Amino acid sequence: MSDLQTYLERITRRVCKDGGVILSTGGADSTTLAYAFKHLGMPFNMFFFDYGHGGAKQQWELVQIHASLLGVPMYRHVWDTSLAIANWSVLKGVDFPELKYDKKEDFWETYGWVEGRNIFMNSYAALYAAAKGFAEIYVGLSKDDRCMPTDQNKEFFEGMNKAFKWGFLNKSKGMKVIWPMIEFELWEIIHLGKLLGLDFDLTSSCDRADVPGCGKCHNCNVRVTRFYKYERKKG
Ligand SMILES: [Zn+2]
After folding, report:
1. Contact 21, 45 (CB under 8 A)
2. Is 121 helix (H, G, I), strand (E, B) or coil?
3. How far does residue 194's CA lie from ligand 1's centre (Å)?
4. Where are the alpha helices (DSSP H) in the chain?
5. pTM
6. Which of 161, 169, 204, 227 is least surrounded by Cβ atoms within 10 Å, i.e. has the fewest?
7. Which domains occur in the chain, in start order?
8. How many angstroms is it from 208 CA to the middle of ligand 1?
């Protein structure tokens, strides 16, 4: 297991010293990143995107708690979803073997997929960052995020960067989305968060809006697995 210093060096290699905006969801990854930036003395703001998803209210409360604990500015953008298509059937044809449909619990109803959501999330986060004089936005993507929905994988963010290259030209410093923890395994992010004193009971990615989680939905299953793995590594 790495020590705190090594973890932080792995992060600083990937970010500029001027800091930026963390896309904050109230989950373990983006919150750990915020604590790491604070520890490093990096300037940053926290940005929350409400796209009408199941856990939005609770997640925004968590982001506010951590922004307040860390003493950093936060911002919430509420997306007008009147044109949004929120239908899990759009995922048909995409291979998500880890997702199951629980008819009794009506699993999919709470699964937070909305068409186009992360295109808009990144765009609004970038606008906010530019308005605050930053040139980078950060996502809590890790090495283990291969099974994520398609708008959370590395290829998606590389595509956003191509758009930013042409969309932020003269009047700001430019814009990039960066994934500082891409070399981390999920359990390592838990380890780093614990080394930084993050209370993981104040984080959640639950599709059902439970804090810290319902323990049943897909995101909670991923969460439980990574905590097990962390405990095993810790020995
Ligand atoms: Zn859950």
Report:
1. yes
2. helix
3. 21
4. 4-12, 28-40, 56-70, 107-110, 117-131, 154-167, 186-195, 218-234
5. 0.88
6. 169
7. 4-234 (3.40.50.620)
8. 5
